[in-house]
Fold this protein.
Amino acid sequence: MRKLLNFLYDAAGTLAAFFVFVIFAVMIGTSMFRVIGWRTGGFEDIVSWLTAAAAFFGMAHTFKHGDFVRVGLL
């Protein structure tokens, strides 16, 4: 059971990192679209849902290691 839980915690941490990267990509994309002159109406909603998902999935991984959800620089 412990191996399964550890796998789930690590998978949740990987998903959280993926969502943070998608937030980065969407924000860069919307900036580029604004420069081009395209409308970017719904992307703010997408980013807010991705932020909630990144925080939710990041909690399990960080709490397992006795830490808080935060951004660390490598």
